[in-house]
Design goal:
Oligomer: single chain
Structural class: mainly alpha
Number of strands: 0
Order of helices and strands: HH
Strand content: under 5%
Helix content: over 70%
Shape: rod-shaped
Radius of gyration: 26 Å
């Protein structure tokens, strides 16, 4: 009888552990997507600002773009 109770307890522990790992994995995926989006936005902004610099290295229409 105690073996059955021990087995059921172990199974409940494993299920809880799997649920925690799944939740952590989902959270990390959301964080990863947010970081990737921030990096993309930074690259686009940098490129846009770089395109405002003319041949004389003077920003053109900087206030309009920023």
């Amino acid at each position: 009888m105690s073996i059955i109770v021990g087995f059921i307890g172990y199974q409940q522990y494993q299920i809880g552990k799997d649920d925690d790992q799944g939740a952590m994995s989902n959270t990390l995926e959301i964080i990863h997507q947010g970081i990737e989006q921030s990096l993309r936005n930074s690259c686009i902004l940098t490129l846009t600002l770089a395109l405002t610099i003319n041949d004389k290295k003077i920003p053109k229409d900087f206030d309009t773009i920023s």
